[in-house]
Fold this protein.
Amino acid sequence: MEFTKGHGTGNDFVILPDPDGALDLTPGLVAALCDRRRGIGADGVLRVVRAAKHPEGAALAGEAEWFMDYWNADGSLAEMCGNGARVFVRYLLDTGLAEPSDAALPVATRAGVVRARIEGADVAVEMRRPRLYDASTATLGGLTLAGTAVDVGNPHLVCPLPAGLDLPALDLGRAPEVDAAVFPAGVNVEFTAPGAPVAGADGHVLMRVYERGSAETLSCGTGACAVGAVALRDAGRDTGVVAVDVPGGRLTVTVTEDSCWLCGPAVLVATGQVTAKTLHP
């Protein structure tokens, strides 16, 4: 199989070109590709397939040519990935599968169609406006933290740390315990702390995340959108711009009246071939 490796603020992906949907992609193969010792290593797999050629994308083929078939590192499927969408668009443009233009480029996902634009060296994607819908908790060891449940096409729980708790010191070596009644399909859990003021932004937040199906990652795009929406709400705002610093860099979240833009770097770092039979699913 041909592959490309890319990342957005350290959130890394194996990209598999499969325009006609011919690849037999299985959970075991995905997990083997993402294995950081026996495979290529990644937080997830992005399969590049024409929407009309994928059963979950066919209904959206009239709106977007390409479907982002995203899989978590453990081989489970995910509805959406903000950094993945940005890297996906970078791949389409750099390989000539899509042409840059002044109009936003549509991409089909399991969460619907997102639109992307190039902003200098960065890629920005427009997604649904985050929906804050419930209060819940996450437990790490003996520490229980209050949080807000947020829908960004996939589920999130945003937990601001109380004063006195150090964000870098949190042990995210195991999954936080959450309420299965609130999150029956699992949830991405974001832990946040306030950052110093940033020019041009209405807020600044520091974030770490434990992603369902991938463990702790250096960045989570939809998680940054969820965090930005919660930060704006806590500041008494419905819209605005929030700088979100993740371990892998900085993302900029812009919440509007009806959508949310996620902007940051998207980089392709390698191309090559992998032999599926040598992997260890």
